[in-house]
Amino acid sequence: MPTATYDGTPVPVDDEGFFTDPGRWTEPMAEQIAKEAGIDTLTDRHWTVIRFMRTQYAEKGTGPTVRVLGKTSGVSVKELYLLFPKGPAKTAAKIAGIPKPRGCI
Predict the structure, then answer these.
(1) Is 27 helix (H, G, I), strand (E, B) or coil?
(2) Which of 53, 65, 71, 77 has the greatest number of beta carbons closer than 10 A?
């Protein structure tokens, strides 16, 4: 299984770079993952989405889709695309250290 190193810690990831063990994720890792995704600085709004993604994953076993994110996270779909331009659900899941949400390509 591939690994990636964030914040000096090797973590198991899948072939697309998504964490396979979300329990290994830490907030300092998120900053590095975001930079790799082209997001220089995580704002409070980014953190709202990231924490929401982690909570949803813990409760449901998968991250929410963009549609669900836009309806339930407190961040509109339009803003989600501004925060995570390369695909909100997929990019936010990767930064949040959870597996890729079902339905993401």
Answers:
(1) helix
(2) 53
Contact between 18 and 60 under an 8 Å Cβ cutoff? The reply is no
pLDDT tens digits for range 9-60: 999 999 999 999 999 999 999 999 999 999 999 999 999 999 999 999 999 9
pTM to 2 decimals?
0.93
- The pair of three-digit structure tokens given for residue 15, joined into one six-digit string: 């072939």
What is the Rg, in whole angstroms, of the alpha carbon atoms belonging to the chain? 12
For residue 74, the 8-state DSSP code is S
Q: Which residue in 11, 29, 92, 104 is the catalytic one? A: 104
Residue 47 lies in a domain: yes
Return the CATH number at 29.
Answer: 1.10.10.370
Annotation says 8 is catalytic: no
How many structural domains are present in the chain? 1
Whether 45 maps to a domain, the answer reads: yes
pLDDT at 101: 79
DSSP 103: T
